[in-house]
Amino acid sequence: MASGVTTETTARGAWRDWHAEETPIRLGVSSCLLGEEVRFDGGHARDRFVKDVLGQWVEWTPVCPEYEAGMGVPRPTLRLIDDGDGERMVAPSTGRDFTADVQDFTRERVEGLGEVDGYVVKKRSPSCGLERIRIYGSDGHFRRKNGVGMFTRALMERWPLLPVEEEGRLNDARLRENFIERAFCRNRWRALVKRGLTRKRLVDFHTAHKLLLRSHNETGYHRLGRLVASFGERPDAEVFRDYEAEFQNTLRTKGTAKKHANVLQHALGHLKRTLGPTEKREILTSIEDFRRGLLPLVVPLTLLRFTIVKYDVDYLMGQLYFDPHPKELMLRNHV
Ligand code: SF4
After folding, report:
1. Band of the pLDDT at 83, cuts 50, 70, 90?
2. Atom of ligand 1 minimally distant from the CA of 125
3. 185 alpha carbon to ligand 1 midpoint, in Å?
4. Ligand 1 atom 4: residue of nearest CA
5. What was the pLDDT predicted at 6?
6. 65 CB less than 6 Å from ligand 1?
7. 326 HSE (CA, 13 A, CB side)
């Protein structure tokens, strides 16, 4: 790198400015995805993106529900069985019912997972899968394919706002970006709570996330604004509690090209008196090209960020929307 040149952004609203070393980004993960040999046959399911790419930025809390529930390795393959009296986990080769073992372990284990920022689970597993898990009858016949792994279901029931994704779905650029953005947002919230919530800190937090929230859910963004404005009318603890729930709930709605384009145009509006007609036209064209799928999000974002820094636009300099997670993950190069 040339001397004196840095590739770090000079805007204030960078994820690093909000990151607290004492609150590292922590993700739960199905152990086999990290390469641990805990699958029924003694193998693993190491996922390159999870282990090698994401792993550079997060600390893991690995869990293998079947192994840790005492089933050992190797072990018989398991199935979810449903005869109308609730789902059971059974080894079809022996008929042994492992439901109680998994449920006992799960109840205790998920309780301690409130301090993670997200969770990556292994697809197609009757314990860990997020969706489309095969359900059988006790007669051995296939019934339906809309089950959720027993451990993951309990995890999501206990922590309904926790971002949870399957490793397979993380191959989809939009789902990947959305999951990681939510995890980083949840981590910033946890760091804020650890520092101690005050009215001023919550207002600063909300202000920095404004454009990011709007790229997910405009209605949720307005609800959060009203919550922040209600300080003084309600006990602070109630406002903090409701803000946390609404913040994470708002982020659950996925961003779309249309919503991002609207946010980018809104940001451009803050520069209308600053930019000349050529600059304005070039940025507008890149936003429109992004909306039409001709350019990735990173292009209009980079153009806008350049002008924000160049003209020192205070409000936009503080917006995390322009830098919500490490650029090395290149999450916005493909959405
Ligand atoms: S139970 Fe989950 S973590 Fe364990 S091997 Fe199966 S998919 Fe992997």
Report:
1. confident
2. 7
3. 27
4. 64
5. 37
6. yes
7. 10
